[in-house]
Design goal:
By secondary structure, the chain is of the alpha/beta class. It has 3 domains: 212 residues, NADH-ubiquinone oxidoreductase 51kDa subunit (Rossmann fold); 63 residues, Ubiquitin-like (UB roll) (Roll), CATH 3.10.20; 86 residues, NADH-ubiquinone oxidoreductase 51kDa subunit, iron-sulphur binding domain (de novo design (two linked rop proteins)). Helices cover 41% and strands 11% of the residues. It contains 17 helices and 8 strands. The strands form 2 sheets. Strands 3-2-1-4 form a 4-stranded parallel β-sheet, sandwiched between helices. It is globular and about 80 Å long.
């Protein structure tokens, strides 16, 4: 996917008022370093947070803004912050940035980290101030080598400028921030698995309660937020709640903007910052340019491999959690994938379920055994060697591995696209069932 912040044409203006995440991006795609970032009002939110606001004020501001997590779950950020116990001034407290971004078809955080590293850093410092956190870690997907290099350079710039470390900007607030590269496991998108990995343990999800807010990294209070989530904080602090609420399109129940995109055989694959509430059709046609010549849209996923498939008629849905929910799935990461008419749904689902089965931590039986079972059946159907009842077995697995049936949300996310694919393209799965001898004789 080409990383891009452009809209339907390069004449669309990106301003601080309309594109708080991307207006500073350079046309040449090079990183925005400290001097340029500060010349574009960078760290203004931090200066306001340190000089004018108490930590509780920042928490209240983020809560009232309606900012929700941008990693896929969509939990209200301010509410999550409010779960942290009051600081005693002695116990270490941690802020973790989930920058693992292992969701297939999703590269939004990569754009922000590679080209706008100081935005994330500023957001983390403000958030740490609100949470009274003294140490932060950016848990980064190991394959993101350019992001790691750019983040570390930006951290060095921030330390040299007095924006990190002891007594930040003379405020008396101390905070240190580090980049930690992981080994590349999808399960680290689950916050307690991420914490285990950061501690040097196997990346298995933890039993909850206790929740990380009370017992997180090394048993201390911890908050975990996504890259895009934290990158929203500086503009909210600098510009206020009413401005943030005014960014979304009418009808959207979510506030602000969202990094959205389209991959697949579209004419203009990319990532764009758009207001919540734009229609999927606008994203698909006006920004991604529709399908390439010779291809037609067969199906699409709204937000990564863990979201259900939708049909072309569902493109009228608005891109926000409730809007996508109305047509039967989740918005997820907001990075959509177009499936063209040349793709076999059985082969596509076999590929996806292989990924999910491989990335299972193996902690609970339904996920550990159920996902490989689905792969075995899908491989047989793909070869045309399926048995009678195989499709029903797959539908049974969709139910057995659904929400509330497993230790974490990995398996429910893995089977959601499988269930929707069978719902809309049952004939393709049935076609993989081999003709049995009795059927052949009857025929």
């Amino acid at each position: 996917m080409r990383l891009s912040s452009w809209g339907p044409s390069n004449t669309i203006a990106k301003t601080p008022e309309t594109h708080p995440l991307t207006w500073r991006l350079r046309d040449d795609g090079q990183p925005v370093w400290l001097a340029e970032y500060e010349s574009k009002n960078g760290y203004a939110g931090l200066r306001k947070a340190l000089g004018e606001l108490a930590p509780a004020d920042i928490v209240g501001l983020v809560k009232d803004s309606g900012l929700k997590g941008r990693g896929g779950a969509g939990f209200p950020t301010g509410v999550k912050w409010g779960l942290m116990p009051p600081s005693d001034g002695v116990t270490p407290r941690y802020l973790l940035c989930n920058a693992d971004e292992m969701e297939p078809n999703t590269w939004k955080d990569r754009l922000l980290m590679e080209q706008m590293p100081h935005l994330l850093i500023e957001g983390m410092i403000i958030s740490a101030r609100a949470l009274a956190a003294t140490t932060g870690y950016i848990f980064l997907r190991g394959e993101y080598v350019d992001a790691a290099r750019n983040l570390n350079r930006a951290l060095d710039e921030a330390r040299a400028a007095g924006l990190l470390g002891s007594n930040i900007l003379g405020s008396g607030f101390d905070f240190e921030l580090y980049v930690h590269t992981g080994a590349g496991r999808y399960i680290c998108g689950e916050e307690t698995a991420l914490i285990n990995s950061l501690e040097g343990r196997r990346a298995n999800p933890r039993s909850k309660p206790p929740f990380p807010a009370a017992v997180g990294v090394w048993g201390k209070p911890t908050c975990v937020n996504n890259v895009e989530t934290l990158s929203n904080v500086p503009a909210i602090v600098a510009n206020g709640i009413q401005w943030y609420h005014g960014l979304a399109r009418p009808g959207s129940e979510d506030h602000g903007t969202k990094m959205m995109g389209f991959s697949g055989k579209v004419k203009n694959p990319g990532v764009w910052e758009l207001p919540f509430g734009v229609t999927a059709r606008e994203l698909f046609e006006d920004y991604a340019g529709g399908m390439r010549d010779g291809y037609t849209l067969k199906a699409w996923q709204p937000g990564g491999a863990g979201t259900g498939f939708l049909l072309p008629e569902h493109l009228e849905a608005q891109m926000y959690a409730g809007g996508i929910g109305k047509v039967g799935t989740r918005m997820g990461t907001g990075l959509a994938m177009a499936v063209d008419n040349s793709i076999s749904m059985v082969s596509l689902l076999r590929n996806m379920e292989e990924f999910f089965a491989r990335e299972s931590c193996g902690w609970c039986t339904p996920c550990r055994d159920g996902l490989p079972w689905s792969v075995k059946i899908l491989r047989a159907l793909e070869r045309g060697e399926g048995q009678s009842g195989d499709v029903e077995t797959l539908l049974g697995l969709v139910g057995f591995l659904g929400p509330g049936k497993t230790f974490c949300a990995h398996a429910p996310g893995a089977v959601e696209p499988l269930g929707s694919a069978i719902k809309y393209f049952r004939d393709e799965f049935d076609a993989g069932v081999a003709v049995q001898p009795a059927q052949a004789a009857t025929a």
